[in-house]
Amino acid sequence: MLEFLQQLINGLSLGAIYALIALGYTMVYGIIMLINFAHGDIMMVGAYVGFFSIAVLGSNIFAALIFAMLSCAVLGVLIEKIAYKPLRNSSRIAALITAIGVSLFLEYFTLFLLTPQQRVFPEAAFPLHKYQIGGLLISNKDIFIFALAVILMIALQYIIKRTRTGKAMRAVSLDREAAILMGISVDRTISITFAIGSSLAAAAGVMIGIYYNTINPLMGIIPGLKAFVAAVLGGIGIIPGAMVGGFLMGILETMVSGYGSTLYRDAVAFGVLILILLVKPTGLFGKDTGEKV
Amino acid sequence: MEKKRFVPRSFLIEVLVLAGIFTLVQYLIVSGLLNEYYQINLSSMCINIILAVSLNLINGFTGQLSLGHAGFMAVGAYAAVVVTTIYSQPFILGLLAACLAAGLAGLIIGVPTLRLKGDYLAIATLGFGEIIRVILQNIDFIGGPAGILGIPRYSTWPWLFGLTIFTIVIIVNLINSSYGRAIISVREDEVASELMGINTTNYKVLAFVIGALFAGLAGALYAHYFYIIKPSTFNFLKSFDILVMVVLGGLGSTTGAVIAAIFVTMLTAALQTFPAIRMVLYAVTLVVVMVYRPQGLMGNKEWGRRTWGRIWGEKNEPLANK
Amino acid sequence: MLDFNFHLEDGELLGLIGPNGAGKTTVFNLITGVYKPDEGNIIFSGRDITGLAPYTICQQGIARTFQNIRLFKDISVLDNVRIALHKDAPYGLLKTLLRTPGFFQGEIEINKKAREYLQIFNLEDKAGEIASSLPYGEQRRLEIARALATKPTLLILDEPAAGMNPNETRELMDLIRWIRKDFGLSILLIEHDMSLVMGVCERIYVLDYGQVIAEGLPEEIRRNKRVIEAYLGEEVG
Questions:
Q1: What are the pLDDT digits (tens) for C146-205?
Q2: How many residue contacts between B and C have a Cβ separation below 8 Å?
Q3: Which residue of B has its CA nearest to A264?
Q4: Residue A274: which of B128, B137, B276 has the nearest Cβ?
Q5: By Cβ atoms counted within 10 A, which residue in A169, A185, B170, C210 is the most buried?
Q6: pLDDT value of residue A237
């Protein structure tokens, strides 16, 4: 039982990271129906910005976090403007290929610029403390990641539910034509969605840096895919779904590594994906909508 | 109209041109004029054409977005290698095993997943492709993550060229028939197609299995050209590579798939001189082409016998085409 | 949502009318298997076809058109009809892949048949054009040609005159009458255009809020009080 609780705690911080990335996938899908394959790589860029601001500029973890989030917000908006916007009226598959192209670009440009070498996140920025609570081992990293993720999610919920921008986002994802008629600027709303989604990914990137200690240019691929599975699990396009899906994926993954084989760790994510798609393709929180004839 | 017609001149010209290409390359290889570098690229070109043309059957003609083609390629590669290398059987049996195994995998995966549509199907096939890879990684009999080494190089130019042409002919024949029209109708409007009496599920599965089968064939040729296979070769990036060729060429154009496969192979080869920036340029090319020509090179047009016929001043219309 | 009974005689030309949202298209979707009914049965030629897959229902002899035209847009007019003829293909997969003489013979036959259908609808010289490039009225006609090519015994037309001008509507009326006679089929027609319904239908059902509120000959329907009430604010013949 204790072992189980320990795995649960480990899973919660990993799940929080997945949930943050999954939110970006879901928001973008909700608004422009695009699987933004580059999202995991935006997370990677965030991790690097965080790394450099700590290692080179010597900033503390919070400044690094804010810096990473701001830069990735800009990056996300730029990507949308340059690569996705021209394809808004083209086929979905053309947009998907473009997203794959952007993803490869971010990965290999970083690789070209910074070499494939792994970087170790500076220990000094976040000194590790471990606490023993009733036989359970909890580190300040876990607490920090979990708390920060929850704060960001609450902030996101506030933006979406309470602000004009959030209302515009919901309106555009519900019915773009109607939103235009109501005087909502669709371009601006899509930009804001990318900005918010990308900054959440950047925060997740810095967290991964803290969680795994090392970062590299291809680090975005696997967590990106898993977070994407999390988004599908919760029901793609549905924000609370992404949060729940993220936590479930994180917990499941630590459970499988803890009790089973690490070799199958990655297969589990895809197994879950297939299972959910075959049983309820719209995800845990999704509603079925039939096609109109 | 119903009178027996002679073999059209354009058909003879096609056969002559292909025979010419084959003999020329064969001569260059035998005489040693074509060095290893060119030979490798030529072989990759054939394998890529098979992959692109077969994926185009699924994605382009049937309109079912599949992102798991590398998985079927892996199944074919491993099945063939088990037959030829582990059990030391002849190449032809390996090829048959590859087609059978990959086709079967296509059937097993296709039946449940083809109920899904659009993006959901795309990610389900991506997931299955990755699961195939992870399973291969965990079977010790076939070398686990390290894969299998020392595979004999059976994929000679006659095999590669012959099977590439064979793939194209089979898929073109399929498309220009009642089967092909039913398959295309699924892409155009699945509901209307179903209401015209077409069992859309069957046709989707048919296209998926045939596509998977040829991916398996390509996998077998790949394994017996490059001496070595390992599971990580067949990850989802490989599937993306194939998808890129199909989309660059134009979804639903076999001509486009062939041209794009040749183009992408040459681009990859040319960029090998700049290893550091190679993938960056590849990515930029991809985005630029998609932004400026989202329908791909050929759209859904073909260069068929009709175009050639017109070039050679031939009047008669081929039977099967419109 | 929908609760109703109706029947159709062999060779009858039946009209189904009702105000917007009365559930007319839903009836069609139930008959053709797009939706499954919660309760009740659909009997066609003595066979229960309730809950069958749409393609089986079509193979039993029911074909339809759509309110918002659903042609196979990006392919040729000829191919649209040839797709509907796919059951007639006299060759199997092996013959297809090997291109045997039997395959070519089969293709010649299919092409001939397809062109016959196009001829009936005066579309023969458009055979090579892309379906979506046709003018609206011709697209409607092509849809009917395509449905007929599946050789139905019951043809269901969902607002065939939508978007047509009075001239085209009149031509369509003649065509519908002619098709019924020449092909010997039953026709079920949903229509908004009263002049068309009153002009060609032998019997009419009026649907409102998912219920049949009247049934009878065109003349009776025209005078029916409940029908006039249901249509209040909309034009009546």
A1: 999 999 999 999 988 887 888 888 888 888 888 888 888 999 998 877 778 888 888 888
A2: 100
A3: B134
A4: B128
A5: A169
A6: 86
Q: Is A114 an 8 Å CB contact of chain B?
A: no
Which letter does DSSP use for residue A221 in this model? H
What span, in angstroms and rounded, lies between the C-alpha atoms of A190 and A80? 8
Which residue from A minimizes the CA distance to C70? A293
Query: pLDDT tens for residues C66-119?
Result: 988 999 999 999 999 999 999 888 899 999 999 989 999 999 999 999 999 999
Q: How confident is the model at residue A293 (pLDDT cuts 50, 70, 90)?
A: low
B65 DSSP 8-state letter: -
pLDDT at A292 over 70: no
> pLDDT category, A52, cuts 50, 70, 90?
very high
8 Å CB contact between A39 and A101: no
For B135-145, how does the pLDDT look when each residue is reduced to its tens digit (9 = 90+)?
999 899 999 99
For CA atoms A143, A144, A147, A149, give the dihedral sign: negative
Q: With beta carbons under 8 A apart, name residues in chain C contacting A288.
A: none
| Residue carrying the six token digits 């050929």 | B298
| Chain C residues touching residue A293 (CB < 8 angstroms) | 25, 29, 34, 66
Q: How many whole angstroms separate alpha carbon B94 and alpha carbon B92?
A: 5
User: How many other CB atoms are there within 10 angstroms of residue C2's CB atom?
Assistant: 17
Q: Which DSSP letter does residue C14 get?
A: E
| Residue in B111, B131, B187, B281 to test binding to A, most A beta-carbons within 10 Å | B131
* Domains of chain B, first to last: 9-321 (1.10.3470)
The pLDDT mean for chain B works out to: 89
Please give the full DSSP string across B129-149, using - where no structure is assigned.
Answer: HHHHHHHHHT-GGGTGGG-B-
C61 touches C129 (CB < 8 A): no
Phi, psi of C65 (to 5 degrees): -115, 175
Please say if the pLDDT value at position B311 is more than 60. no
Q: What size, in residues, is chain C?
A: 237
Nearest to A36 by CA among A70, A71, A75, A67: A75
CB A225 within 8 A of CB A273: no
Task: Tell me the two tokens of residue C233.
Answer: 């604010």
- Nearest residue to C198 via CA among C187, C210, C189: C189
Q: Which residues of C touch B185 (CB under 8 A)?
A: 72, 83
Global pTM reads 0.88
> Which burial class, exposed, middle or buried, applies to A127 when counting CB atoms under 10 A from its CB (0-12, 13-18, 19+)?
exposed
Pairs of residues, one from chain A and one from chain C, whose beta carbons lie less than 8 Å apart: 4
Q: Are A14 and A254 in contact (CB under 8 A)?
A: yes
